[in-house]
């Protein structure tokens, strides 16, 4: 099947699914649920199958009747990767909806998104890109607002829609700008090519518009604001797809435009600045959030900040020192981070559907590992990934990124670039460190410790399908982590047009240095492969630079301790007594560390940033203390805009509803203004 | 500036008394010769000489606390015998209980003893902890540890001097009063 | 009920409301409440003018109320007597004393850090509930009563001779002052006059006690800031003073040295060497001054103390702390100057004052009082001969009826103002009612406010040590 066949297939699929649903709905919602689930299964498998066809040789022109221009179906960069990712996530999401009463509503929103993704992956052409991205925007909005009917959902929906439309318009402007040059080139070839003859300034403006357009969906600072508003309100699997898949698609969109325009240094610098700001603000707000899903939503912004920084640094380095392998590493980092984030974040968001039985705020949770060991275990894997625990995907991505920042600093860059990279690296390191604390807090206060809520934790096991659905996306984590020796060469092959350095990047683990030469292991000579001189196992020169060493050492020491305990334990085993709490006060949730307390030192350290204030109210015979923080972006950037818009609309409404005096006054003002302008001209 | 004393003490002998294992006139004068009664039996390899002490105030007048606190002073230095105080009962080997044992403290004492890991021994410190002393018969006062925890050693005195407390602690480990070499058991 | 000469009695208030209003009015002037007690149906407060030392008694007889709205005792909200008010509400339900609703503390993510009753290395039983947000102490609630020995009811019905050993074990580190205050009340009731030698010996005993008590408190403060070397030095000085006590009076804590009508010479050693003791006291004084200078040059010590545990002005006004805590916060009350007892009028004491009210101010007050006490001790020991003390003749008198039915004894204990008011059986002189106001129970009331005054959890041990209050004095 070639590109045009696939686009036709997805269009037909959408129509059949919706029409079928409408027909079956007369038999009741259960039938609809079954119909949609089966269709979803088919669609997900279709996405997986499509990944084999997403290569340039299947690209086709789709002639449309006049006056419509010809559409071109050619695969986006990395389309086959995202096709697999999307297939897995949709499959898991469909499994997750099985246990939900409102599953059919979620599927009504998810399946159009699925077909939209299917079309989007073929949209190497500008017009198709615009159309399918607009479609995805609309479906995202529907996915958000059709499942819940509460005020915050509608607010989030409106924000999403307006920002998406803003992005859509920007994309339209960018593409219209490109169109005359673009069309000429498309006549010759189906593959995207760099276009000549675009002035640098234009290129920058076009790229900026593109980045903002895709950044709305991908969580770019500062247009990502809908994410922390919407994702806590959406069902777990929907939020997981929003958070995991949409950014990946957006990255491909940006790359597709970038290769045509060939952005310059300024664009890259803007991207690095926005990325670092996004990562920092995302992690800082993530760690102070109380709502379990909002922590995840803000941490998404942190990871995406890393991705955008990686993108900026890739462009920066490939322009400054084209031969440096660092640019390859940071671009790989962006992809690795996106893949692992898609898997891990989907798992965590879905896990909150299970923990949501006990509550959504961290203060009401705790000790849920006794609720379901499986959910806790799988979430632990996902948390460890996001927290960059070796050898999982997050670790690989962050290592590649930070290494890619450090490496060009030794390669004769100018003072300004050097300083810029240092600041960016420091900002990212801080963001990542706070991010780790945020993940620990999330996991620890939900699954470990004492339970803090009213509803007791009994062994309320989730369905088997739920656990399977949580386990599936973790394949992505494994691919991006221990599977990275095989994954990286594939990425580099797929991204070949974007790479300026000829050197391949090969991960050290599992690769025999002799057989894979010439290679450049991660960390250059900082991190030799096991077996090479200088590692801890062959200590010609002692070096614990290999990050995996820490992992293996931890594993080894744990085993040694377990062995010693087994060998030397005396008596009748462990005697369990309650935790020591001073002798009088019983050990309970009230006397144990709280999530707010955990974060309080950090809240004080960044008090200026948060605009921290403490309030004490007196009610019901108690002093009630709370700490309020300002969400600066919402309250200081968006709130005035919204207020202004509201004022204008209400004013116009008032004028139109018969306030004659005001109306006449305005008319006079404009007439006078007109006269003045006319006379001046 | 404080490190000067460390240097000074190398030249000059420290103030620490050798009491109760070595003779010391002043400490012996202050001490009460028949203060110690113990039921503890020495068990080989059972309680060795690095023992953590947990103290509980069961309703004292803070005299025993004052003397216990002086055990850390350079004059008595309980660490020369391997003793140390610990905040957590989970690390403790010896439980030292002072005061008249009020009803409110009974569950606390039982809980602390439960939290301690075996082997463990209890010392009743001061005349109040032995029989309630002048507070016998006051409302809410138990006046003794019978039925709460098993007492290994009694150290009489109001308050017992730090020297006597050291004797009692050593007797708890060794089963004999280091001063007299005798083992006295109460009925 | 008769009162001593120095007590000015305001006519009995007709209603409880009048009584409390009169109390409030008196307190808003120069008077501080010293004690509040319910002696059977009679509620009595004793106020002392903190400038002249004059005592005022306000009482209200519950039997006078003839129905109507007369009986409305309620929480008077006077900080000095708050502990007693709680005790009255608990132990005398027939008074139906109303307390304010205990405020709970709640909040987003606030949690309670329970500390005690088993806490620290060697400490008295008290449960601190620190309500914290992360490290920050939002509020402290104290729960006492773990070591209540009911001394007040235990001594009722006892003879003076039977009661003295119990009173001497109220708080051992202030037992001289407890005994002294009780003995002063007894001597007032029986009209016993004392020789100047006895009075000076009592000052000697009192100042020796103040010296070792402050040395112990300073050792606790030093170790709370993580400085074991000064802790060891202070403990060594404390042990030195305790040994001097033993050499002079036969007991390390000077117990039973003071008896009604004199000082107990029997237990004393025959070979007392006051001049040698004065020399040792001189050494202790030198060492203590050197320690103080050293600590004030140690930045890690000063940094931890400055601004830690500052008593808020409102709490000072409301709770009127006494002793070193009060003097560190600008309340200059010192009973030895305002209302001299024993031979204190012969000594021109220098009462230190600070106004910051933080841990450092309390440290300053303690070191200066320590120096002053040691100087007084040295001066007395220079001319003191225990053999000149006449044998005590007063003990036989106590078996007879008292001249007046009650007596008041107010002294300045190491931790502050300590007041005894004892009512005796007019027939056989047994104690009929004992009202005891200890400085610790009064000062504990301001500790929560000082603790929740912008401090963090790591400041807690330092602030706790800087107050150096005894729980035995609260849970008497």
What would you say this structure looks like, in words?
The complex is a heterotrimer of chains A (681), B (187) and C (476). In chain A, 65% of the residues lie in helices and 4% in strands. With 681 residues, chain A is mainly alpha-helical. A two-stranded antiparallel ribbon of chain A has the order 1-2. The longest helix of chain A is centred in the first third of the chain and has 38 residues, at 151-188. Mean pLDDT of chain A is 82; it is low at 509-545. Chain B is of the alpha/beta class and 187 residues long. Helix content of chain B is 28%, strand content 14%. Chain B has helices spanning 3-11, 25-30, 63-70, 106-115, 126-131, 162-174; strands at residues 36-38, 51-57, 83-85, 94-98, 121-125, 153-155. Chain B is globular. Chain C is an alpha+beta fold and 476 residues long. In chain C, 40% of the residues lie in helices and 17% in strands. Chain C is built from 16 helices and 13 strands. A 4-stranded mixed β-sheet of chain C has the order 1-4-3-2. In chain C, strands 6-7-8 form a 3-stranded antiparallel β-sheet. The longest helix of chain C is centred in the middle third of the chain and has 29 residues, at 196-224. Chain C starts with 6 loop residues before the first strand and ends in a 9-residue tail after the last helix. Chains in contact: A-B, A-C, B-C. Chains B and C meet through helix 1, helix 2, strand 2 and helix 3 of B and helix 3, helix 6 and helix 7 of C. Strand 6 of chain A pairs parallel with strand 5 of chain C, so a sheet runs across the interface.
């Amino acid at each position: 099947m070639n590109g045009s066949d696939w686009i036709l297939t997805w269009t037909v699929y959408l129509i059949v699914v919706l029409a079928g649903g409408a027909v079956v709905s007369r038999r009741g919602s259960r039938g609809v649920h079954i119909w949609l689930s089966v269709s979803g299964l088919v669609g997900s498998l279709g996405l997986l199958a499509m990944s084999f066809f997403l290569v340039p040789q299947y690209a086709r022109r789709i002639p449309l009747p006049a006056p419509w221009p010809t559409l071109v179906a050619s695969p986006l960069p990395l389309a086959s990767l995202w096709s697999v990712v999307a297939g897995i996530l949709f499959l898991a999401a469909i499994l997750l909806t099985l246990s939900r009463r409102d599953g059919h509503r979620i599927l009504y929103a998810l399946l159009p998104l699925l077909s939209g993704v299917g079309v989007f992956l073929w949209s190497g052409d500008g017009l198709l890109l615009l159309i399918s991205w607009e479609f995805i925007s609309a479906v995202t909005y529907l996915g958000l607002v059709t499942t819940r009917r509460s005020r915050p959902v509608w607010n989030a929906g409106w924000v999403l829609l307006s920002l998406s439309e803003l992005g859509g318009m920007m994309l339209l402007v960018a593409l219209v700008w490109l169109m005359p040059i673009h069309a000429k080139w498309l006549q010759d070839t189906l593959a995207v090519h760099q276009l000549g003859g675009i002035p640098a300034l234009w290129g920058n403006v076009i790229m900026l518009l593109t980045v903002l357009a895709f950044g709305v969906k991908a969580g770019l600072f500062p247009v990502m604001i809908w994410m922390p508003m919407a994702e806590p309100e959406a069902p777990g699997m929907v939020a997981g797809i929003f958070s995991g898949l949409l950014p990946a698609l957006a990255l491909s969109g940006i790359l597709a435009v970038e290769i045509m325009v060939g952005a310059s240094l300024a664009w890259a610098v803007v991207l690095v600045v926005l990325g670092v700001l996004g990562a920092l603000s995302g992690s800082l707000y993530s760690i102070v959030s109380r709502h379990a899903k909002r922590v995840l939503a803000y941490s998404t912004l942190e990871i995406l900040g890393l991705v955008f920084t990686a993108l900026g640094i890739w462009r920066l380095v490939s322009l400054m020192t084209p031969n440096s392998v660092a640019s390859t590493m940071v671009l790989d980092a962006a992809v690795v981070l996106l893949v692992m984030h898609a898997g891990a974040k989907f798992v965590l968001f879905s896990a909150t559907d299970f923990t949501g039985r006990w509550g959504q705020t961290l203060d009401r949770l705790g000790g849920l590992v006794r609720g379901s060991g499986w959910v806790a275990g799988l979430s632990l894997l996902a948390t460890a990934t996001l927290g960059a625990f070796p050898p999982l995907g997050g670790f690989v991505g962050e290592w590649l990124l930070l290494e890619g920042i450090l490496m060009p600093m030794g390669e004769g860059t100018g003072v300004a670039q050097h300083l810029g990279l240092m600041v960016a690296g420091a900002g990212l390191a801080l963001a990542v460190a706070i991010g780790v604390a945020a993940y620990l807090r999330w996991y620890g206060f939900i699954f470990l410790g004492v339970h803090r809520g009213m509803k007791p934790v009994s062994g309320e096991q989730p369905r088997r399908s739920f656990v399977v659905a949580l386990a599936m996306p973790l394949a992505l984590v494994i691919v991006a982590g221990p599977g990275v020796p095989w994954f990286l060469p594939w990425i580099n092959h797929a991204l070949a047009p974007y790479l300026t350095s000829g050197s391949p990047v090969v991960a050290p683990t599992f690769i025999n240095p002799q057989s894979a030469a010439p290679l450049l292991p991660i960390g250059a000579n900082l991190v030799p492969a096991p077996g090479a001189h200088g590692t801890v196992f062959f200590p010609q020169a002692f070096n614990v630079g290999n990050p995996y060493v820490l992992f293996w050492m931890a594993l080894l020491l744990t085993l040694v301790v377990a062995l010693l305990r087994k060998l030397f334990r005396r008596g009748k085993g462990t005697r369990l007594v309650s935790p020591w709490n001073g002798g009088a006060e019983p050990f309970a949730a009230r006397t144990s560390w709280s999530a707010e307390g955990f974060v309080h030192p950090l809240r004080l350290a960044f008090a200026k940033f948060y605009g921290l204030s403490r309030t004490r109210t007196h009610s019901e015979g108690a002093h009630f203390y709370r700490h309020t923080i300002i969400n600066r972006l919402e309250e200081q950037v968006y709130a005035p805009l919204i207020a202004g818009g509201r004022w204008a609309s209400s004013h116009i409404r008032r004028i139109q509803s018969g306030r004659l005096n005001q109306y006449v006054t305005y008319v006079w003002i404009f007439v006078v203004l007109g006269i003045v302008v006319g006379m001046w001209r | 500036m404080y490190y000067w004393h460390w240097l000074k003490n190398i030249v000059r002998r420290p103030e620490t008394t050798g009491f109760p294992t070595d003779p010391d006139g002043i400490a012996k004068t202050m001490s009460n010769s028949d203060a110690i009664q113990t039921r503890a039996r020495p068990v080989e390899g059972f309680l060795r000489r690095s023992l953590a002490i947990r103290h509980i105030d069961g309703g004292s007048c803070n005299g025993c606390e004052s003397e216990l606190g002086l055990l850390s002073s350079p004059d008595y230095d309980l660490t020369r015998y391997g003793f140390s105080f610990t905040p957590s009962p989970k690390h403790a080997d010896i439980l030292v209980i002072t005061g008249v044992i009020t009803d409110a403290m009974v569950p606390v004492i039982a809980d602390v003893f439960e939290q301690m890991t075996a082997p463990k021994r209890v010392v009743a410190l001061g005349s109040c902890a032995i029989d309630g002393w002048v507070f016998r018969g006051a409302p809410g006062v138990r006046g003794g540890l019978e039925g709460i925890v098993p007492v290994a050693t009694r150290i009489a005195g109001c308050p017992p001097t730090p020297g006597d407390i050291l004797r009692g602690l050593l007797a708890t480990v060794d089963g004999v009063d280091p001063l007299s070499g005798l083992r006295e058991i109460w009925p | 009920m008769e009162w001593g000469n120095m007590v000015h009695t305001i006519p009995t208030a007709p209603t409880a409301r009048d009584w409390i209003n009169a109390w409030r009015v008196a307190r808003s002037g120069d008077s501080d409440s010293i004690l509040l007690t319910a002696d059977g149906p009679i509620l009595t407060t004793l106020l002392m003018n903190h400038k002249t030392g004059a005592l005022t008694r306000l009482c209200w007889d519950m039997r006078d109320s003839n129905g109507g709205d007369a009986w409305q005792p309620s929480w008077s909200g006077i900080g000095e007597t708050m502990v007693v008010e709680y005790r009255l509400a608990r132990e005398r339900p027939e008074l139906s004393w109303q307390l304010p609703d205990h405020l709970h503390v709640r909040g987003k993510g606030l949690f309670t850090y329970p500390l005690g009753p088993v806490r620290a290395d060697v400490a008295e039983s008290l449960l601190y509930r620190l309500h914290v947000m992360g490290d920050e102490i939002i509020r402290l609630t104290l729960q006492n009563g773990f070591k209540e020995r009911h001394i007040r009811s235990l001594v009722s019905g006892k003879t003076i001779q039977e009661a003295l050993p119990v009173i001497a074990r109220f708080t051992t580190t202030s037992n001289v002052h407890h005994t002294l205050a009780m003995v002063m009340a007894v001597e007032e009731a029986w009209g016993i006059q004392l020789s100047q030698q006895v009075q000076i010996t009592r000052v000697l005993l009192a100042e020796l006690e103040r010296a070792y008590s402050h040395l112990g408190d300073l050792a606790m403060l030093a170790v709370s800031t993580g400085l074991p070397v000064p802790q060891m030095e202070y403990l060594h000085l404390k042990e030195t003073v305790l040994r001097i006590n033993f050499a002079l009076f036969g007991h390390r804590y000077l117990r039973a040295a003071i008896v009604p009508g004199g000082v107990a010479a029997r237990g004393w050693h025959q070979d007392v060497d006051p001049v040698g003791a004065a020399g040792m006291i001189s050494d202790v004084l030198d060492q203590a001054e050197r320690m103080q200078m050293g600590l004030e040059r140690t930045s890690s010590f000063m940094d931890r103390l400055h601004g830690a545990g500052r008593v808020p002005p409102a709490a000072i006004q409301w709770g009127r702390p006494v002793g070193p805590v009060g003097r560190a916060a600008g309340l200059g009350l010192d009973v030895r100057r305002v209302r001299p007892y024993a031979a204190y009028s012969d000594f021109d004491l220098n009462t230190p004052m600070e106004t910051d009210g933080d841990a450092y101010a309390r440290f300053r007050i303690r070191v200066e009082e320590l120096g002053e006490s040691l100087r007084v001790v040295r001066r007395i020991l220079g001319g003191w001969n225990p053999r000149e003390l006449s044998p005590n003749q007063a003990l036989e008198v106590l078996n007879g009826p008292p001249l007046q039915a009650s007596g008041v004894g107010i002294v300045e204990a190491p931790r502050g103002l300590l007041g005894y008011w004892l009512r005796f059986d007019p027939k056989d002189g047994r104690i009929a009612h004992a009202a005891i106001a200890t400085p610790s129970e009064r000062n504990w009331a301001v500790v929560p406010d000082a603790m929740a005054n912008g401090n963090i959890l790591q400041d807690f041990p330092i602030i706790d040590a800087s107050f150096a209050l005894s729980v035995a004095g609260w849970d008497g």
